[in-house]
Structure formats: C-alpha cells, structure tokens
Amino acid sequence: MTESPAAKPAEGEARQPVKNGLKPERNGLVKTLHRCYEPQHKRHDQPEEEEVHLASCYGGLYGRPFIESFEETPMLVAVLTYMGYGILTIFGYLRDFLRHWQIEKCSIAREKENQKDFVPLYQDFENFYTRNLYMRIRDNWNRPICSVPGAKMDLMERTSRDYNWTFEYTDRVVQDVINLGSYNYLGFAENTGPCADSACEVTMKYGVGVTSTRQEIGNLDRHEEMEKLVAKFLGVESAMAFGMGFATNSMNIPALAGKGCLILSDELNHASLVLGARLSGSTIRVFKHNNMQSLEKLLREAIVHGQPRTHRPWKKILIVVEGIYSMEGSIVRLPEVIALKKRYRAYLYLDEAHSIGALGPKGRGVVDYFGLDPCDVDVMMGTFTKSFGAAGGYIAGKRELIEYLRSHSHSAVYATSMSPPVVEQIITSMKCIMGEDGTTIGCKRVRQLADNTVYFRKRLREMGFITYGNNDSPVVPMMLYMPAKIGAFGREMLKRNIGVVVVGFPATPIIESRARFCISAAHTKDMLDRALSVISEVGDLLQLKYSRHRIQPSPARPFDDNVYEDIDD
Length: 569
Description:
By secondary structure, the protein is an alpha/beta fold. The protein is built from 15 helices and 19 strands.
C-alpha cells in the first residue's frame, strides 16, 4: 500500500508483516500540527438566508474551480412540508383504526387472520410509513420496462384496483419514453454496436454461466484479461473483479478491517459501505458530508485518544468515501482527503461506483478529474453497472492488497464467477473509453457527457429549480420537498413521456424529497431540450420553482497544502 514518507520505516528497521491486506501502522502522534491559514472574510453584500455555494480554494490542491451548490430550503416550504407529513400521519393512524374495526376495505396491510398466532413478520409501528405513505405513491417505482434502457425506453403500462398494493398489466406499451433515470452515463446500455456483437460472440463460445468459483474451475482467460485491463485503465498495479457491485463493498471491507480498527465514514455513504463497515466489527465514526474540518477532528481525536477504554493506538484507520454521492450529486473533495490521509497516516477507501467513466478528461473517475496520482488512494473500488453498461464491481490497488483479497474476501472465495458475456461487455466498453479499439468514440462520449451535464444543470437553475451537487456531476437532484409532490411529479412526467426517478424519506431527509436525473452521453440536445421543457411545464403546474437565485459564500475555510506547519515535539 502507498505510504507517506513519514510512514516509511527508517533504514535498518524491520517492516511489520502485511495483515488484512494493508500494512499495519501505529497511528501514533509523531509531530504536533497546527493550522496556519488566512480566515475567509464574509462578504457583507449578500443577504443571510441564501444559497450555500461552495467554491474551494484551488491554488494549492485544486487545479480547477470546484463549485458545489446546496441552496437552503425556503422557510415556508419547510413548514408546509412538515405540515404535509403531519396530515398524512394523522390520516394514517385513522386508517389503521378503521382497519382494526374492519371498516377500511383494503386490509392487505394487515397480517392474515390465519397467521395471527405466529410471531409478526414486521412491527406495526415500523411498517406504518410503508402502509400509509409509501403505498399511496408506490406506482412511481418498480415500473417494468420492455426495451433496452438507453436514451429512450419502452414501459409496460399497469393499473391498480387496491390502492397500489397489487398491479395489473393493461397489455399496452408506452413507447419512446425519454430515460432520465438510468445510470447509463456513457450510453453503453445498447443492443447494437461493438459491445453487443462481442458479447454475442463470447456467449456462443463460452456460454452464459460459469457454474463455479474463480478458485475452482471458473477462472476464464477473459476474466484474467479483464482484470489486467482494469488495472491498466486505473493506472494501478493490480485489480480483481466481483460479480456484484453491492457485495464488492459489503464483503471486502470486512476483509480489510476488523476489531481494533477505526473506520471514518462519510454520513452519506452508500448502504453497501455502511453494511461492510458494520460487518467488519470495526469501530465506526461518521463525519459530516464532504466536511474536511469534521474529518480532521475525528482523525485528531483518534490519534490522541486511541481506542476506547484501553487507549491503545488503533491498528488501522480507514477513511471511506465515495467519488460521486448518488443522492446529493456532490463530488468528494479528494485532494483534501488525500492531504489529511497523508498527514495523519491513515488509509483511504474510495468508492467510484458513479464516478468511474463519468468524470475526468479520460473517463477514469474522480482521481482523473482532479489530476491526482492513483497510488495515493489505497483501495480503489468501482462498479461496472453504470458507465460500462454491464454488472459487477472491482477492487484495485497494490498487488499485495489484491493477492490478499483473492484468498480472504468472501465474495472472491464463495461467489460464482462473472458471466462471460458480461465480462466481454466490460472489456469492449473499457477499450472503447481508452481508445484501444482504434476509434475516438469513447473520448467523444466522455466529452458529450460532460457537455450534457453542464447544459442540463445550467438550464434547470435558470428556470428557478433548486438543484444540489457539483456542476460537473451527471447525477442531478432537483428538490421537490413536499410528500404529495413526489408522486405527482413522477406521474405527470410519465404522462408526457419522460421517465424520472423520485426519491423520498427514508432515502433522503424527511423534508428533502427530490427527483434525481441521471444524464447520459446518449442524450441528444433535442432530447434534453424536450425534457427540460416538460420539467418546466410540470414545475409550473406543481409550483416547484423554489430557487431565489441568491448566493452566499461558503463558511468553510480554504484547504491548501500550506495549511499546516510541522512543529517538532
């Protein structure tokens, strides 16, 4: 694994053996560090209740402007949103009362009569939200599609006669729906072209399934080629692939950390990262989203105080972050995270599920986006399910890390090998991005995605919608806030042949319901203009244009390489 110069052993000092895939290091305090920076002066020409607009100081660590916006929820909207949830809760309890006395006709939400003597499958209060709130708008999710999920798709129409508890198909297909919900960032979700042709050829040769693990008789030459290509693409020594993206996180983090280790996790990390951290048995501490002051505070406390009760140094400190956060559209402040990791001699686990292929001039993720050295990231994780139009995930880094995981990761030892046509889809699409197919198609798609993202975000803000996240993030959350508008927005958009994803509590904070658009390189300008026109129309209908177009400077301090001065004890 990559070590900072201060972490390398002195001449003649014996190295400790590799353990858990990462070199064990005592995170002792070698030097006392103190901040040395100029305070950021507040601009007095801006009102107080304005949009929070984050612009990092990019003189030292950033080679380009890093701008993210999170406009504050208008007070009236927040009050009305809380009132809406309150009214829904009151009516929910009323409906539960009517169900109890069998006045409510729809009793599907209750346990069956012949199961009342059994232990309940769910607690009544815990399932309250699902029964009385989610079911009202359930038709906005799990919509079955019957085509390739490309820039446009076909949906199967369905209806419900029991308030969305069950659905019936009408045998009608809604055709040419503009797809703003799939993670098809580079447009490789297609059934024609070189990727589809290569997958067909490999299927005829190898079949669809391998029916064995990689350690037994399931290690194909295509698997080996794919892993070498992934390592080359990322600029690291080695890589290994897994059949499921979620399991790549949840099954590999326990192999890297355990009892006596500390995991510092961003508060908005994906559920797979959270599950992996919990399964590891490590101590978990959460820092505020993308907040370097919060992360630094936890690092300092971890080094100064050590483990609880014993106060022994932590065996390992692992910082876990994502490249692009899929609900916020924000990009990790990776240069600052790496600077802190090096200062405090911690390790870094980077999840690039949404950023690989979607960011950077070469499509190589958030490391490429910031122009950083891949060796500064100890564990690089990503998925093939989005930009590559396939399935599965990967872990990449030092060769010793990968060799350790091959024999200790549950997802490597016990899982069936990846399907050959899926592997071929990854190889072909990755070669296309790298330009090794002899064309410039991949580079053009990366540039097209960047252009589409900037254009779409700019137009939404000009229309008066509140959007979250970084200007370069293809994940574009647009705020809806009120619970009634979650279902209404999804239905009204589908009526106009636009397919969108709407998200509410508990996936988001209760007053921050939103629609999440995912931009693709396959979207043409005409498609985006059509979608934007419909969004504006529905926004006027539902009164969603909350933005006040006012900007407030970030209260966060600038972060630079010269922020710290080392002082000997």
